């Protein structure tokens, strides 16, 4: 078996076997976190003139408009029409849409590194979700890895001023929980779709949340448009923020969840603060050894959590019982 905690046979998402699968899954998770982390500095600049709801809606719209035609070519119109669009509206609207909006609000109230650090609760949340759904049995090496991952996150968090924690932190924690649940559901509940299709259909559900938030914000008199004209530099950052930091990162992460499970894939979220710090360093910020130490501990946790004795995975016959009929 390529990961821990160990899958409970006959239930939920069957995780592929073998060291090659583990390597591929972890590589995809690293790629996902790198592209995701690269979006934080862009968001930091855009949020100076864009209200969070406007930036969220523009990001979702651009990502979906580009990804849907590509998905059409890869999966074909018949498979797209047969997809579980109703379920995608729930998973994408609540987990992806609301979750991504909350993380933007959190960044607006704090800063990019703080938000990435608070997301270090992801492994614990994802593990509880998998244990509750019956798709995993907790193994000692995974439990040890999870504890070290959380310690790494706490060490990194010690570099954050207490004044930065509060409502913004609460939004980031809630966002992380919603994202973990949505990632697990996306990888599990759309087996007939490609990785791009799984990501695109739930992002389309997230777009419905964005449209609703824009309407509500406009109705109550909140700002829904950028404070100043959108220039070429802002458009470039928005394209990167939407297509790479959201679209490509989501495809990588869902593919990683399909190979590792959401619990182990989410370990990599705890290294995101280090990636953000390195990117911000290139932009003029200072190096922080505390965050670097936290990232090193998380990397150690990922290694420890791998199951070194592959075991055969029995085909699951109860997936429909958990995720519903297609």
Please characterize this protein's 3D structure.
This protein is mainly alpha-helical. It has one domain. Helix content is 72%, strand content 1%. It has 14 helices and two strands; from the N terminus they run E-H-H-H-H-H-H-E-H-H-H-H-H-H-H-H. Helix 1 runs antiparallel to helix 10, helix 4 packs antiparallel against helix 8 and helix 4 crosses helix 9. The two termini are 28 Å apart. The N terminus and C terminus are likely disordered.
Backbone CA Rg: 19 Å
Uncertain runs with pLDDT below 50, 5 residues or more?
1-16, 309-326
Strand order of the largest sheet: 1-2
Helical proportion?
Answer: over 70%
For the sheet with most strands, the description reads: 2 strands, antiparallel
Number of strands: 2
What's this entry about, in short?
The protein has 326 residues and is mainly α. It has 14 helices and two strands; from the N terminus they run βααααααβαααααααα.
